[in-house]
Amino acid sequence: MQWPWRRPPLLNVVEDVGDGPTVVLIHGIASSSVTFQNVLPLLRDSHRCITIDLLGFGTSPMPEDCDYTLADHANAIRRTIRSLRLGHPFTLVGHSMGALIAARYGARWPRSVNKLVLVSPPIYLAPGELSDDLERGRMDFYLKAYRFFRENKDFTLQNAAIVERFLAIPKAMDINARTWTPFVKSLENSIESQTTVSDLAAVQAPVEVVYGSFDQFASEGSMRIVARMRGVEVHRVAASDHLIGKRLARVVAQAVG
Questions:
Q1: Alpha helices (runs of H) in the chain, residue ranges in sequence order
Q2: pLDDT (mean) for 66-80
Q3: Taking the complete model, does pTM exceed 0.90, yes or no?
Q4: Of 11, 112, 115, 212, whose CA is between 20 and 30 Å from 51?
Q5: For 142-169, what is each residue's pLDDT tens digit?
Q6: CA dist 214 to 123, 206, 237, 254, Å?
């Protein structure tokens, strides 16, 4: 849903700290701005850091009539950022699904963004678009797994709680009965139905992609394609996974500049 007859909802601005060039940070699916707890200490002494909870997650609105497409998420972020009256371009940092939304934002409003930093982006293509047999199989597995998660609510909710406890990061995953609809719709309409490669082709600002060598959701085949795109620089961080630990956070801060 594109809200053609009314404005997108305002999202919750969790933090607005520091002085200097502005950095806007958006988290991923089924999470919150706690995602950036290791990044903010590295940036807030030299940048103005704004963290925003995505539509349907954290403490942001959860409209019942929303389809949670990339456009829905990007439009809500756009209205929220405009409400802050920044008056100048900013660096947009997105983690996981937030990276896909950031790419759409940069393609849609190029004059607003002077740099994109995409952290642990789950960039997926149709399996048939990849030449490597292993990568095709891995892509097919991801897409089938996501469909299974969407279609088996009890299984997903039960195991999401186990994973959240294992990660030992409060709200690192926020999949529960309250967030179920935003989760499954975002998964289907923003991750599985993404347009990230074509969005990146339309982005005018420099793009820095940062991901871990142990990222559970990364597609190396997609990363190789992205790395060959104009204006894109890819950083593969050793011994890091999908979450932004301290090692990954240092590279993210360097990419912000």
A1: 40-43, 70-83, 97-108, 133-151, 153-167, 180-186, 196-202, 220-227, 246-256
A2: 96
A3: yes
A4: 212
A5: 899 899 999 999 988 888 776 666 554 5
A6: 15, 25, 9, 20
